[in-house]
Amino acid sequence: HPDVIIINKNSGRDPKDRRKTTEISIDTIRDFLQKGANLPPYEGKFKIFIIDDADLMSVEAANCLLKTLEEPPQHIVIILLTSEEKVLLPTVISRCQRFELKPVAIAEIETRLSLNEHIPAEKIKLLSRLSGGCLGWALSSAEDETYLKGRDLRLDEFSALITRNWDERLSYIQQLPSDRNSIEDIFKLWLSYCRDVLLIKYNCDEAISNLDRINDLKYWANMLTIFEIKEFINSLNESLSYLSYNANVHLLFEVLMLDMPKKEKRADYMVNSVRPGY
Question: Are 176 and 251 contacting, i.e. CB atoms less than 8 angstroms apart?
Answer without folding.
Answer: no
